[in-house]
Amino acid sequence: MATLGLDRASLGNLLATLTTRGRSLLGLAGGERAMSRDELIGLGETLLSRRGEASGTALAHSLLAGYAAAHPDDQLAFLDALADRFGPDMTQLDKALTAVRNDGPTPDAVDALLKAAEPRRQELIRRLNLAPGGTASLVRMREELLSHVAARPALKPVDSDFVHLFASWFNRGFLVLQRIDWTTPANILEKIIRYEQVHAISNWDDLRSRLAPSDRRCYGFFHPQLVDEPLIFVEVALTRDSPAAIAPLLDLSRTPIAATEATTAVFYSISNTQQGLAGISFGNFLIKQVVEEIKRELPNVQTFVTLSPAPGFASWLNGERAAETSPLIDAATRAALDLLDTPGWADDAARAEQVRAALLPLAAWYFLEAKGKRGQPRDPVARFHLGNGARLERLNFLGDRSEKGLQQSYGLMVNYLYALDKIEANHEAYAEKGKIAASPAVRKLLPSRIVAEAGA
């Protein structure tokens, strides 16, 4: 049997042809125009009722284009309609429930119940995904949805349905790992500059210094339906040891080393790029696959660490300082921490040393003992790396002296070690028992006084 192969361009042309023919069949006008709430809802109902591929593709394209051009009030009204008009078919759901009650949970009855319980909007979203550019449009639609969920709790089930579908469409099997370097097309490089979330890229020279030298790497996950949009990317420095500060890694005047001289791969920035895919995890797969890529290319690299921010530390510490009493802060510690409020403390060796002596033990407590509402570490970056099986290896005082670094963590940075022979055991211990893998050096920072007074 002959196999028909379609590349991306051919598939795009096929979908465009289906859309054009479908528009002709349905009498839909070409081009894009803003649609009202009622038009968007009506198209949604029509799309769910059609069976033809050409007409379905045309309707999906028209709805997505009309939504994108619509007034924000009409967009919100359509999202509200997804919640209250495109839920489960209650007639079919009642019928399926009655069958289960009367006949028992037979396989056929349970199957019918599951189908009836599925909200109609899930099928609508699936059909919208068939339009040319449908996946990207739906990601943008969910981004808009997320901006309203906090104020409109009724939209939460709609968001859950988006997450349910996106988790399938963006699972690891569909993602493609690509190296991003100085020869990567400019439209993608521009997005790397725009999407960088950890250490801002100031200009093209800055970007070049992160991609072009022999001791730098960048990798991203791409999806077949979003080929020019990295979903997440990681920047890697190849070094001779584990760094304690970010400035030397980002220094434009530094002298690169040969990749073959490196013994350590440092993951110093991981950025998610699509707000509409929030809650869909890519980072754990990305780091593990990049480790494998580097091991294949550079067998001399044996150590894999991060140089990570601590975005929640300053907020937590400020809360402890503001409390009338804190078992973590005695009079001497409070006096040292008060120096944090004095201008230029980080550049004054004497004041910085007093702050260091008071701050590092509290930082150790923050990472090892402070918990959030769900009993997990308070710091989001710590939750990510510890959940991936990394070990809390080292706390770096004034590792980030930038304005952002001083504001979010008083300059604190963290090394998480990905010891390849310990990753799975660390992950299991963290996932099953909440046990945090940490080096003896970090644990020794926690003074016995704080442990005793806090009742740990």
Could you describe the 3D structure shown?
The chain is an alpha+beta fold and 456 residues long. The protein has three domains: 159 residues, Up-down Bundle (Butyryl-CoA Dehydrogenase, subunit A, domain 3), CATH 1.20.140.90; 134 residues, Aminopeptidase (3-Layer(aba) Sandwich), CATH 3.40.630; 146 residues, Aminopeptidase, CATH 3.40.630.150. Helices cover 52% and strands 10% of the residues. It contains 21 helices and eight strands. It has a five-stranded mixed beta sheet with strand order 1-2-3-4-5, with helices on both faces. Helix 13 links the parallel strand 4 and strand 5. Helix 2 runs antiparallel to helix 3, helix 2 packs across helix 7 and helix 7 packs across helix 9. The radius of gyration is 27 Å and the shape is globular.
Which key phrases capture this entry?
456 residues; alpha+beta; Butyryl-CoA Dehydrogenase, subunit A, domain 3; Aminopeptidase; 3 domains; five-stranded mixed β-sheet; three-stranded antiparallel β-sheet; 21 helices; disordered N terminus
- Side by side, the strands of the main sheet go 1-2-3-4-5
Structural class: alpha+beta
Report, as a whole number of angstroms, the end-to-end distance: 69 Å
CATH class of the largest domain: Mainly Alpha
Write the topology of this structure.
Layout: H1 8-26, H2 37-49, H3 53-69, H4 72-84, H5 90-103, H6 107-117, H7 120-128, H8 134-149, H9 156-169, E1 176-179, H10 186-195, H11 204-211, E2 216-222, E3 232-239, H12 247-250, E4 264-272, H13 283-297, E5 303-306, E6 308-309, H14 313-322, H15 331-337, H16 349-368, H17 380-387, E7 391-396, H18 403-409, E8 413-417, H19 423-433, H20 440-444, H21 448-454
